[in-house]
């Protein structure tokens, strides 16, 4: 199975915490709800979850922003708690609707 043991690097105390976070989040948010029937579906599922986790989901430690905003998508201005009239909120399903990513898009005139 080509499994190797990786030791925690010297003078990198956060490494173990990052690994624990990943090994906790991955089953809880993805693998517990979807059953892959082979290596290729598992690889695709993990790819989609990784992209969602790094680009589409806000992380509490970073404030209201996302860690990696989508390239070429400017953030639309929001005035207080009200959206501008020419914008609407859209939802895009991820992993067959298990998660959703929300964004703003212009309303067709």
Overview of the molecule:
The model has no long low-confidence stretch (mean pLDDT 78). The longest helix has 18 residues, at 14-31. The chain is an alpha+beta fold. Helix content is 33%, strand content 15%. Strands 1-2 form a two-stranded antiparallel sheet. The protein contains two helices and two strands.
Run of helices and strands: HHEE
Structural class: alpha+beta
Helix content estimate: 25-40%
- Intertermini distance: 56 Å
Strand order within the widest beta sheet: 1-2
Q: Main beta sheet: strand number and arrangement?
A: 2 strands, antiparallel
The residue ranges in which pLDDT falls below 50 over 5 or more consecutive positions are none
Gyration radius over CA: 18 Å
What is the count of helical runs?
Answer: 2
Mean pLDDT: 78
Count of β-strands? 2
Task: Tell me, briefly, the overall form.
Answer: extended
Quickly count the domains: 1
Instruction: Classify the beta-strand content into a percent band.
Output: 5-15%
